[in-house]
Design goal:
Blueprint (H helix, E strand, L loop, with lengths): L2 H13 L3 E9 L2 E8 L2 H9 L7 H8 L2 E4 L11 H7 L4 E9 L5 E9 L6 H15 L8 H11 L4 H8 L3 H14 L5 H10 L6
Antiparallel strand pairs: 1-2, 1-5, 3-4, 4-5
Length: 204
Amino acid sequence: MSDRFARQRLVFSELAPAGYYLGLRIRFIAAENEFIMLPPTLMQSYSTQGLALNDPLMRWAFRNSGTIRWKDLVASDPADVLSEYGRHGLSYGAVVSILTQNEGPLRTIGIFGRNDRDYEEPELSDLQRTLDELHEPLGLTLTQPQIEALRLLAAGHRYKKIAQILGITESAVKARLKSATLRMEARTPAQALKVAVAAGLLHM
């Protein structure tokens, strides 16, 4: 993400040395941005075993707001998903969930892990405060050329076709989409499109 995320990333890396997951500004089940900084071995196991359906951390995050330590969710973990986290170096952790109701429910969640000790109250407050900063609206804007390129991308056109429609080169299309991606603080044009639509910038 952009420099806006750099400071928050330092906080998360320091407080969650074993890894973390962020789902930013989720409407229904789709996040505007998602960051998975968890061990690849855990993610592989998580996927192959289908643990998402039984994960007490995700279940709590989508049903509550505030903070909670993983140890307080053991009773809500009949499938023993937390032990799987532990096998991959995340023995202790916390969940943070933020919910606002402006123009419909909007949720941001964070799952943070450690392998050395449990979280202290001031650290939980730091995690919540830092995640709350990322939950705030970005105040994003797009130029008209960027909007035109993203709209055509949303319509399913490839770069060559977009160039033909707009009467510009394919390189110019790529440049517009790259700049739009940076403005949306996204990683790919497809993700930038999702952020722009969620922010109401394309009026589709």
